Amino acid sequence: MHNDENKEVEIESVSINDAPANENIDVAKLQDDLAQMNDKYLRLAAELENTRRRAALDAESRARNRAMGVAEKILPVMDAVDAALKHNPDDAGIQSMARALESAFAQIGITKIESIGEKLNPMFHNAIQVVESPDAETNTIVDEMQTGYMFGDTILRTAMVVVAK
């Protein structure tokens, strides 16, 4: 049997300063490698953030385009309700439908383009007729044949108007 209790173990402490000078530890190269890896990391992180941002913008754009497509399909319904209201302005049912449609439009961001009494603006108005009007200034809209609509800051449809000359 061996007597392990009597053996002494010597532990030597080691520090970085004890490293032999002849080992080729190139601190400058290690720092350069670290800088390159850090640069790659930052570029990849920025690229990932840009990809996320683009994906969010693309999703928002697709949703907006779908909403505009639906809105454009509903505009003829609003036109029919407006025509019915002009034909029979005292009908409570038609008035109710007009209010409901206007409320729905407002909730999704569709607004009417103001026309009558405004100056002609080709971005918002399509002049389909010019008439003599002693009461109105030149290029002022005196009548609206079809209402124009906007979806946020995008024109869904220009207003068809009659302009004074």
Rounded to the nearest angstrom, the radius of gyration is: 38 Å
Q: Which strand order does the major sheet show?
A: 1-4-5
- Classify the helix fraction into a percent range: 40-55%
How far apart the termini lie comes to 123 Å
Helix tally equals 2
Bin the strand percentage.
Answer: 15-25%
Outline: elongated
Structural class: alpha+beta
The CATH homologous superfamily of the largest domain is termed: GrpE nucleotide exchange factor, coiled-coil domain
Stretches with pLDDT under 50, minimum 5 residues: none
Give the biggest sheet: 3 strands, antiparallel
Q: What order do the helices and strands follow? A: HHEEEEEE
* CATH architectural group of the largest domain: Alpha-Beta Complex
What is the CATH domain class of the largest domain? Alpha Beta
**Average pLDDT value?**
88
At the fold tier of CATH, the topology name of the largest domain is Hemagglutinin Ectodomain, Chain B
Number of strands: 6
Number of domains: 2
Blueprint (SSEs and pairs):
Blueprint: H1 27-87, H2 92-108, E1 110-112, E2 125-131, E3 141-146, E4 149-151, E5 154-157, E6 159-164
Parallel strand pairs: 2-6
Antiparallel strand pairs: 1-4, 3-6, 4-5
Characterization of the model:
The protein has a three-stranded antiparallel beta sheet with strand order 1-4-5. It has two domains: 27-108, Hemagglutinin Ectodomain, Chain B, CATH 3.90.20; 111-165, Nucleotide Exchange Factor Grpe, Chain A, domain 2. Helix 1 (27-87) packs antiparallel against helix 2. A hairpin with a 2-residue loop joins strand 4 (149-151) and strand 5 (154-157). The protein has 165 residues and is α+β, with helices and mostly antiparallel strands. The longest helix has 61 residues, at 27-87. The chain is built from two helices and six strands; from the N terminus they run H-H-E-E-E-E-E-E. The protein has helices at 27-87, 92-108; strands at residues 110-112, 125-131, 141-146, 149-151, 154-157, 159-164.
